[in-house]
Amino acid sequence: MKRRHVKRRYDATGRQQAAAATRASILAAARELFLANGYAATKISDVARVAEVALDTIYATIGTKQVLFHLLVETAISGSDRAVPAEQRDYVKAIHAEPDARKKLEIYARALRPIHERLAPLLRVLKEAAPLDPELALVWKTIAERRAANMRRFAVELAATGQLRVEVDVHEAADVIWATNAPELYLLLTHDRGWSTDRFEKWLTRSWIRLLLRDD
Predict the structure, then answer these.
(1) Is residue 204 within 8 Å of 109, Cβ to Cβ?
(2) pLDDT per residue as tens digits for the range 102-146
(3) For residue 213, what are the β-bridge partners?
(4) Distance between CA 204 and CA 107 in Å, rounded?
(5) Separation between Cα atoms, residue 108 and residue 154, nearest integer Å
(6) Model confidence over 162-173: pLDDT tens digits?
(7) Rounded-to-integer distance, Cα 187 and Cα 194, Å
(8) Which residue intervals of the chain are DSSP H helices?
(9) 20-29 contacts at long range (C-beta below 8 A, 24 or more positions apart)
(10) Which distant-in-sequence residues (6+ apart) come within 8 Å of 110 by Cβ?
(11) Residue range 64-84, pLDDT digits in tens
């Protein structure tokens, strides 16, 4: 009697975990080098050396230097190893679910604190490198335009609560939020002026409430 051969179910968990670990090593090495040396001075071969992976692994896993830097920016925004659309982020869902404008602003300021800690230093590197690299200039423009559009949507949501000051329209509210949560301002206050991130978060919340919302 012939024995039946049962096909073993392929378990890709180990391979997926190894790929995730490699990706994480590449991103960590790239962030370290870009922040320490700037964009122009950092080579993909340097990233491969620090990450302890083959050069071809970076190109196969992520892509070119520009793509790698863009991914660093996106993961800094999302707080994960992948780019995450705004509507899928937990703090955005919490803002949508909250009916009170003051609490919406508090949620957003709290969420921005860790985002800026990750993102602002990278954007300083990006801003310095963008004039010399058309692809990076496009990355900078795309991020800036996306942030402005998101602030517009947030301002519309705040206006829908009926709690904005009478003299503040949606356009002004969007511009105020956009300007005050800029990574450049975060760096000025925390890096140049020595503010703690906790102080920045509390100041940002108070400023938004005072500038945008009715007193009652």
Answers:
(1) yes
(2) 999 999 999 999 999 999 899 889 888 888 888 888 888 888 888
(3) 164
(4) 11
(5) 10
(6) 999 999 999 999
(7) 9
(8) 13-37, 44-51, 55-61, 65-78, 90-97, 101-129, 134-160, 170-180, 183-187, 197-212
(9) 20/81, 22/51, 22/53, 22/57, 22/61, 23/61, 23/62, 23/81, 24/81, 25/51, 25/52, 25/53, 26/51, 26/53, 26/57, 26/58, 26/61, 26/62, 26/68, 27/71, 27/72, 27/75, 27/81
(10) 91, 201, 205
(11) 999 999 999 989 988 877 778
Q: What is the pTM of this model?
A: 0.82
CB 19 within 8 A of CB 26: no
What letter represents residue 114's amino acid? P
Task: Give the angle 128-130-136 at the CA atoms, nearest 5°.
Answer: 135
What single letter denotes the amino acid at residue 44? I
